[in-house]
User: What shape does this take?
Amino acid sequence: MRNVRYSLAAICILCSAFLTQAADEKIRVACIGDSITFGAGVEQRDQNHYPKVLGELLGDKYETKNFGISGTTLLKKGDSPYWKQKAFKDATDYNPNIVVIKLGTNDTKPQNIKHKEEFVGDLTAMVEHFSALPAKPKVFLCFPAPAYATQWGINEKGIEEMVIPAVKEVAKAKNLSTIDLHTALSNHPEMFPDKIHPNAAGAKLLAKTVAEAITSAK
Assistant: This one.
C-alpha cells in the first residue's frame, strides 16, 4: 500500500510539473513582412518596431518575433522573394501559434507587378505552408499600409488595385481573418516621413491594430 501511495504521489508531482510548464508556455506570434515589419525608418528601432510594440500590447502570455526583411516580395518571381530569405526558414522553425503576414508593398514595383496574376496563388501557398506547421497556427492576412507617394517603384495604385483585392480573395477562400492596416494608417501622412515607411508613432498604431485583431479573434 505504501508503494502505491508513493506511485500516486509521483504521478501527481509529474502532472503538476507538466501543467505548470504548459501554463508557462507562451503563445508564439510570427510577424512576417518586409521593411515596414522590420522597422526601417523607425526611431530607436530596437524598442519601437511594430512586432516589439505588439508584444508589449499583447502582454506576458505572448511572445512576438520580427521576421521582417526589407525589400522582399510575396511573389515568388519578384525581385527579392521572401520565400528565399533565411527569415522564412527561421519563421517556419519557430513553429508559431499565430502568423501575421504583411507582404505586398514591394510587389507593386514595376518589375514585380508584371507577375500580378500569380499573387493569389503565391499567397495561398504561403498560407498553406504556415497552416501545415505542427502548431496549426491561426493566420492573419494584412492589407498593406498606404503609400503616400510613388517611391522606389512602390505605388498606391498597385496596393489598392492588386494587393488588397488579392488578399481579400485568399482570405475568403481560406476563411482567414484580415487586418486592415491600409484604413488604420490612412490620413496619417505625418507618420510617414519618406511617404512609404511609418515612423515610431505609425509603428505603434500598426501594432495596436494588429493587437486588436488578435485579441478580438480569441
